[in-house]
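[agent] plan:
  1. take the single chain provided in the ticket
  2. run structure prediction with default settings
  3. attach structure tokens to the ticket
  4. add a short note for the reviewer (M.T.)
[agent] executing step 1
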Amino acid sequence: MTPHVTGATVKAADRAHVFHSWSAQALIDPLAVAGAEGSYFWDYDGNRFLDFASQLVNTNIGHQHPKVVAAVQEQAARLCTLAPGFAVDVRSEAARLIAERTPGDLDKIFFTNGGAEAVENAVRMARLHTGRQKVLSTYRSYHGATAAAINLTGDPRRWPSDTASAGVVHFWGPFLYRSPFHAVTEAEECERALAHLADTLAFEGPQTVAAIILESVPGTAGIMTPPPGYLAGVRELCDRYGIVFILDEVMSGFGRTGKWFAVEHWDVTPDLITFAKGVNSGYVPLGGVAISGAIAETFATRPYPGGLTYSGHPLACAAAVATINAMEEEDVVGNAARIGSQVIGPGLADIAERHPSVGEVRGLGTFWALELVRDKETREPLVPYNASGAANAPMAEFAAACKASGLWPFVNMNRTHVVPPCTVTEAEAKEGLALLGEALTVADRHTLGG
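[agent] step 2 finished; step 3 output follows
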């Protein structure tokens, strides 16, 4: 018989034994969650939260989708696990469904346990395919917390682990609102960002560069949608110098932007795509690399020197098959596109007009960010870059106001992201936007003249 569980007992056990990621262990107070369904989760005291973070932007199909839960249960009863060297029906079907949705000839799927491992293996494939070592990535990026992935990452989480010797070169990607190129139009930003990348390649020696890795739409770094022509321009540079083009779709893939993969918005085909998160909404850990024909051929008779005990785990693949099929049957990708264009986009534009703390709104589908500022004219961020403690108080107060109202936000630096499940309804999206607008009055107090 299960003993009575309370939020206090769950939290006490957590504090005694769980070591949390990205945290000073003595300074955190994790919420004890009792359950979740659809776009909501709740604690043991009955407080209910609208999940405007999709946890870590991964529950694309929402919490506890019955078709995915049933598929995992059925697979567990039939075959819980099998080593990756065997052919397994559910693994093959998951790979087929993913390959059907990738652009071009990215038809081979290497499975991992998550996004960081997908990036590690994509980089390894690129280096072996080209015989080169350097990899270029942007400063405003996040690619994971494992050895190569954290060095590729551009945000401050890289700093404590950065060896400066991992064969990584960082460059500036396009971001018109805070343009490093002094551009005033998207066309200028695109042209100058591509010129900067071409110059970086020239000075690094393009013949030494194995790959360029970009998030199709950078996620945690700020949801900066690339200007028209940018991804095509990067593709052209890669083709010119024999460089592998890797697109990281760990966060932006599987419906998040209103397309199966975000790159579809720009009609570009990379050589490798990394994925995870939304492929099965995180119900069982799963990630992977979608591989082009040319790179797959490199390992046709030459062994690929990489693998994982749980690569293509049957429970994870069953969740992926059920997720993709349910998304197709229920038009979840179309829903994300419609909610983005008809509800979230217009709603956030209205919020920006009414709140002095909102400097810019950007995004698509169910993938949006609000840039919070102290002054709309100067665009000074509401808090300094990588602020913590007292310096981060305005954002901490804003986040606390969201949670107090029943909205669970995704907050990073001076931004709040609007990233509900791709299954979010119009009513839920409007509810969340109303709560967000109320919480922004807290941020408004920290603006110039606030």
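[agent] step 4 note for reviewer: The first strand starts at residue 33 and ends at 37.
[agent] ticket updated
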